[in-house]
């Protein structure tokens, strides 16, 4: 290899790994070690070290057909598509909730032990609430996160919470989650420790919708609208054929 060609090759391992991963932009593409070496213009031994580590980290997988994208990338892509669809389906419903409550509206999704804020509406009032799209908060520390956690098995909740905050009072959390299940709603008069009041309702076991305002007394009046919004989002996410099937399902006799 000439000195000029060698100088043009990426120097860091991260740059070289990026060169390799860029070859797999087509989800179902399979490449051999030799093909990767030729297309990246990296030494075959270097490529072998890189793909071996990428396999260990589950970015790539290897089979008789060659190397392909691994579980980590496929899960990432699936999660991105799911969250994009959730946000798109929820957008008009969140807007209606904003108009009906004049409160700051949030849409969140559970991600491990955190809740990821996917959307936030509220105009000028939103500046008083310390969140933005992309904010991550410990799930057990927010109404959005707790209503989603309430749908999970206790052992799953404990694993997620202790990973974020070891030593947290789990018995107290389980009691609160039980109340959330009973009422399908979570309230907090001091969300984020900011003195703001919040109410949230789960869309499903991985997502929730909620509002934040500076009027704690208004939460009980607002809660039914939040529950209705969560149900609408749930319906928007449910395929039409499944809705029809469930509508015609025989009702159990009492």
Q: What's the mean pLDDT score?
A: 86
- Largest sheet composition: 6 strands, antiparallel
| Helical content (DSSP H or I, runs of 4+) | 40-55%
**What order do the helices and strands follow?**
HHHHEEHEEEHHHEEEHH
The CATH class label of the largest domain is Alpha Beta
| Strand order of the biggest β-sheet | 5-4-3-8-7-6
The third-level CATH topology of the largest domain is Beta-Lactamase
Unreliable stretches: 1-7, 241-248
Rg for CA atoms: 24 Å
Helical stretch tally? 10
Count every beta strand, where a strand is a DSSP E run of 2 or more residues: 8
Strand coverage percent: 15-25%
The first-to-last residue Cα distance is 81 Å
Tell me the CATH architecture of the largest domain. 2-Layer Sandwich
The shape is elongated
CATH H level, superfamily name of the largest domain: GAF domain
Protein model, in words:
The protein folds into two domains: 13-69, Orthogonal Bundle (Arc Repressor Mutant, subunit A); 79-237, Beta-Lactamase (2-Layer Sandwich). Helix content is 50%, strand content 19%. The protein contains ten helices and eight strands. It has a six-stranded antiparallel beta sheet, with helices on both faces. A two-stranded antiparallel ribbon has the order 1-2. Helix 3 (33-40) crosses helix 4 (44-56). It is elongated, with a radius of gyration of 24 Å. The N and C termini lie far apart (81 Å).
